[in-house]
Amino acid sequence: MFIRVTHLRAKRIRKDKLFKYFCIPFLVLFCVCACFCVVSYRILIMTMRMTNHKSLLVLLLILASWITFTVFRNSTELWTALKLPISLPHWNFFMKSCPEAPLNPVVSPRKTELRIKKIMEKLDQLIPNRPFTHVTSTTSAKQSRATILNPQDTYCRGDQLDVLLEVKDHLGRRKQYGGDFLRARMSSPALKAGASGKVTDFNNGTYLVSFTLFWAGKVSLSLLLIHPSEGVSALWRARKQGYDRVIFTGQFANGTSQVNSDCALFLNSSTELCEYLDTRDQEAFYCVKPQHVPCAALTHMRSKNKNVSYLSKQERSLFERSNVGVEIMEKFDAITVSNCNTEKTAPVPKKCKFGMTSTVPSGHVWKDTWNPVSCSLAPIEMKECLKGKFVYLLGDSTIRQWMEYFKSSINTLKSVDLHETGKFQHQFGVDLDKNIKIQWQKHGYPLVGSLNFSVKEIEYLARVIDRIGGEKNTIIVISLGQHFRPFPIDVFIQRALNIHDAVQRLLLRSPDTMVIIKAENIREMHNDAERFSDFHGYIQYLAIKDIFQDLNVGIIDAWDITIAYGTNDVHPPQSVVKNQINIMLNFIC
Q1: Percent of the chain having pLDDT more than 90?
Q2: CA-to-CA distance for 458 and 90, rounded, in angstroms?
Q3: CA-to-CA distance for 218 and 435, rounded, in angstroms?
Q4: CA–CA–CA angle 64, 68, 74 (5° rounding)
Q5: What is the per-residue DSSP string for 17-53?
Q6: Nearest to 25 by CA among 92, 91, 93
Q7: For residues 401 and 440, what is the distance between their CA atoms, to the nearest angstrom?
Q8: Are 269 and 295 in contact (CB under 8 A)?
Q9: Burial bucket for residue 454 (CB in 10 Å: 0-12, 13-18, 19+)
Q10: Which superkingdom (predicted)?
Q11: Measured between alpha carbons, how far apart are the two ends of the chain, in Å?
């Protein structure tokens, strides 16, 4: 229904464009050619004695039609009008008529649709449909059995410990399929140490959970059933069904007063709509147009959860607090890990840099410090590293935390008042002595927040990146995902693809620019699973790694880092933020 309304609007716009850019110019040009032919006809009659006047006139009119057709056959304005809801800037016409390939090629909407479809097909294969008739047939953490393979009294640091998991339903029956959303973690709180475990799904009701024993000491093992496979299937189906789990209220300026109106990524409304459309990247946001108020008067936005669910009553019971994040290995004692091979010295891995192989787990925390598996991190003096650099922090509030950390850690970094208000206001800091400039900017719609925030200067990150000149001292860190969880996954995929293409264009014109993607953090486990479950975040985490794998960008695996720290908070403590930033500093210095 949402798509139908959008298409009807697009068709109406296309008809207007067809009339404006094709019919009127065609008629004008045809009339000019016809007049030319009539004048030529009269001259020929006066200068030549021709008897077949009608034949000559017909031939000249055919000539006029042929000239008109030839001119319009190569017109890119025609095809632009047919394909796009509104006209492109004039420079596009000239670029398209140029025989050379453009420096910054723009991906067609059709190609983007195919890329989205391909990614969706991959994800659908990972999440098969698992309908169920009763809750008792779903996976039970209490009934499932975990067994340590080749158990020992003492393990050696560096060894791998494997656990075989056999999942059963609430009646104790062995499950014949996989797909459960599990989270494995090992930890030593006294050592401020932690790491994620690797889960291998055999798709037959059994899993292999592998822990790399990174440190010596008493180590606790944890295996949480976040959601049973039936719950995962229900979340995936529900996510595809609606855009209205979160609704937006737009505030329009009307003289000295304000007018509120309903807004959304898609609106099913017969009333007149304001359409805020990026014509190139085909991303749009809509508001019901207030009476006698122009669309350009939109100034602020806020959101709230709507009392709507696409889950059945039985499915919703799977996401009650007592059924989310249930421990499977609660009866297991801590294991002992020793430094067995003290004579052997492990080779020191190379310094972290772009393009390094991703591993699972990607590292571990020890003494509250992150240690990657495939590379090494050195302590970096922040001010010296950032000297002469312009750092763009683009995205959500989890990357805004970086901005706050920089301001608290660099005492000479002074905030610049940009005359904005609200929690999503742009932030800019400058250190004149070291010539350091750091900027945080929010991403475009959707932004979920109950407090009013300004949208006067809101824009999509692809456009922001397109405006950045870039060079070796330009650093761009991008993070998005949390605000996309309540909406269909294709919204997030399209946004990530558009940002990918903008980064690709940037690296074509300025290959020395350093671009870093920060993955999502895990968040609160019992916070409205249908909208904000970490399952949605995990799917986006997989998608963004797939999308950016072909570009020379750095990846900060915040997903694995926050599991290792065991934060379960969308805004982790400063110690976690510090370690995420240290990865960036090692990338660039």
Answers
A1: 76
A2: 24
A3: 47
A4: 150
A5: HHIIIIIHHHHHHHHHHHHHHHHHHHHHHHHS--S-H
A6: 93
A7: 10
A8: no
A9: middle
A10: Eukaryota
A11: 52
Give tens-digit pLDDT for 574-583: 999 999 999 9
> In 297-381, where does DSSP find H-type helix?
313-316
How confident is residue 506, by pLDDT bands cut at 50, 70 and 90? Answer: very high
Per-chain mean pLDDT for the chain: 86
Residue 68: CB atoms within 10 Å: 20
Question: CA 214, CA 208: separation in Å to the nearest integer?
Answer: 19
Query: Residue 35 pLDDT more than 60?
Result: no
Paired tokens of 473? 């001292």
- Is beta strand 335-338 parallel, antiparallel or unpaired with respect to 155-156? parallel
Is the pLDDT higher at 343 or at 430? Answer: 430
Tokens of 176: 């014949």
The bridge status of strand 453-454 relative to strand 298-305 is: antiparallel
Cis previous bond, 486, omega within 30: no
User: Could you tell me how many helices (H) and strands (E) the chain has, helices first?
Assistant: 16, 25
**Cα gap 587→581, rounded to integer Å:** 10
What pLDDT is attached to residue 53? Answer: 55
Single-letter amino acid, residue 475: I
Q: What is the DSSP letter of 351?
A: B
Spatial CB neighbours of 465, under 8 Å, sequence gap ≥ 6? 394, 476, 499, 502, 503, 505, 506
SS3 201: strand
Return d(Cα 331, Cα 325) in angstroms, integer. Answer: 16
Which of the pair, 267 or 69, is modelled with greater confidence?
A: 267
39: tokens are 């004048």
Average the pLDDT over 426-434 and give the result: 96
| Full 3-state SS string of 549-586 | CCCCCEEECHHHHHHHHCCCCCCCCHHHHHHHHHHHHH
Specify the amino acid at residue 208: L
- Count Cβ atoms within 10 A of the Cβ of residue 140 and give its class: 0-12 exposed, 13-18 middle, 19 or more buried: buried
Can you give the pLDDT at residue 356? 84
In the predicted model, what is the mean pLDDT of residues 6-16? 40
pLDDT at 46 over 80: no
| Residues counted in the chain | 589
Instruction: Work out the burial of residue 369: count CB atoms within 10 Å of its CB; fewer than 13 is exposed, 13-18 middle, 19 or more buried.
Output: middle
pLDDT at 358: 85
pLDDT tens digits along 463-488: 999 999 999 999 999 999 999 999 99
CA 542 to CA 564: how far, in whole Å? Answer: 18
- The whole-number average pLDDT for the span 61-80 is 50
The number of C-alpha atoms within 13 Å of 217 and in the hemisphere containing its C-beta is 16
Dihedral of CA 471/418/280/248: which sign? positive
Q: What is the C-alpha to C-alpha distance for residues 194 and 367, in angstroms, rounded to an integer?
A: 9
If we measure between CA atoms, which residue out of 439, 463, 548 comes closest to residue 504?
548
Query: CA dist 381 to 119, 385, 582, Å?
Result: 40, 6, 10
Q: Tokens 């340590």 correspond to what residue?
A: 148
What number is the average pLDDT over the span 547-570? 97
pLDDT, tens digit, for every residue of 163-192?
999 999 999 999 999 999 999 999 999 999
CA 58 to chain CA mean position, Å: 61
Residue 297 per-residue DSSP state: G
- Strand 474-479, strand 514-518: pairing: parallel
